[in-house]
Amino acid sequence: MTSDPKAPRPLGDLERLVMDQLWAVDGALTVREVHERLSGTRELAYTTVMTVLDRLAKKRLTERERDGKAWRYKAAAPREELAVDLMRDALDRAGDRREALVRFVGQVSDEEAALLREALSRLEATELGGVDADGVAPAARKLEEREG
Fold first, then answer.
1. For 11, which DSSP code?
2. Which residues contact 108 (CB under 8 A, 6 or more apart)?
3. Which end of the chain has fewer CB atoms at under 10 Å, N or C?
4. Rounded CA gap, 54 and 146, in Å?
5. Whole-angstrom Cα distance, residue 60 to residue 34?
6. Is 90 exposed, middle or buried (0-12, 13-18, 19+ CB in 10 A)?
7. How far is the CA of 10 from the CAs of 19, 31, 76, 92, 115, in angstroms?
8. pLDDT tens, 22-53?
């Protein structure tokens, strides 16, 4: 099992709340702006928000730029990219990738299963198209090669 020690870890509750604020805007926010947005639902010290944003920057989950004396923070990537990184890391740590995927798929809703089928079909049609000489769809072959 080869897992990147610097791979992202699941966000804690407070980190998730802060990232949700950053993902909700197109631009960057100051610590004060994030603090004000969170103060409607949580009682947090300004310094706590500042510390969380600093840690998220060190984890490279946010990017920051100077704005006078303040820092402006924005999400380094969309939330979906973080989800992908977390799922890939979980698979890397699973031991038996195939078994982990089978168990995962066994727990998804009908709607999520349909989304997975649609995503695989789209990959097969756009990236590689058709089936190979063995009758295996290229996206499925690609998954087999990665596991092997």
1. P
2. 116
3. C
4. 36
5. 18
6. middle
7. 12, 22, 16, 15, 23
8. 999 999 999 999 999 999 898 999 999 999 99
